[in-house]
């Protein structure tokens, strides 16, 4: 029987609650589809700072490196806001992405049919269904560029640098093109080439890879400001979007909101190997931590992505996604609850998904 070793980075705030539900669902899927999962906890974020003084202990990196994959809840919270930049919980998240070489972040923005009413966009704008795959570069750009403080004309100043090398752009472009090949054959690359040098290199490189390696893919380019507008004006025009680290961070929050709740969206971070890091795109929601009201579905869907992209269990992935779609017709957590449906807690939601599996 196949056995997979998965590291759990439960993190802070609602992290532990939502990961616990995803573990339940993974165990149920394992039973049904005949594989085994072994879980091991490791520390990341604020809880790691409390226990070890740093947000990303070396031990966590080692554990993740030898695992088949990693499932992450969320990190951060007001308790650690006074930490210096390099020792914030978020620095731990960036650190683990970098240490594992996870340069490609897949963020699907889909609308589950029962949630169409939850989207802030008008039904005629959403159309029949919406399914966008945002491919975000994750280990380069301004998040990882040179940064610091200096004095300018006698005043304190701070700076961060956006920098991309050709190989960095090439490899993320290929992820975008491959994704487009599996889907509609259309790829939109997003940059700010009218202003930024790094974006001009981005655009030229993506265009060259398209011409040389993927002539069958229909490639378009958009400036990021225009893309932000188009996402709410006519989101149906998009299928696969590929973009830089920071633009992807911003556009994925926007795209997620189209789906009705940021509590629904999963993500996969991949490198050149098979193992990946899977996490909901929402944060640690410290305001509702411990109240039992968190929505575990984005984490459960992240576990499904893990089964699909890292563990070769596509049937189990599909079954979980179907169970989530089914549960939304019966019961919801408070963030997406509407009249006529059962209002359930985080734990009850996990149980329901298991039952429907
Ligand atoms: C995300 C988050 C992170 C990011 C933060 C928490 C560092 O916003 O995964 O989108 O900016 O990448
Ligand atoms: Mg973000």
Question: Could you characterize the architecture of this molecule?
Answer:
It is a single chain. α8 (224-233) runs parallel beside α9 and α10 (297-309) runs antiparallel to α11 (314-327). The longest helix is centred in the first third of the chain and has 19 residues, at 15-33. A hairpin with a 2-residue loop joins β6 and β7. Helix content is 41%, strand content 22%. It is globular and about 60 Å long. The mean pLDDT is 96. It has 2 domains: 1-111 and 261-357, Isopropylmalate Dehydrogenase, CATH 3.40.718.10; 120-258, Isopropylmalate Dehydrogenase (3-Layer(aba) Sandwich), CATH 3.40.718. With 357 residues, the chain is α/β, with parallel strands linked by helices. The chain starts with a strand and ends with a helix. The strands form 3 sheets. Strands 2-1-3-12-11-4-5-10-8-9 form a 10-stranded mixed beta sheet, sandwiched between helices. Strands 6-7 form a two-stranded antiparallel sheet. A two-stranded parallel ribbon has the order 13-14. The chain binds 3-isopropylmalic acid and magnesium ion (MG). 3-isopropylmalic acid is lined by residues 90, 93-94, 249, 281.
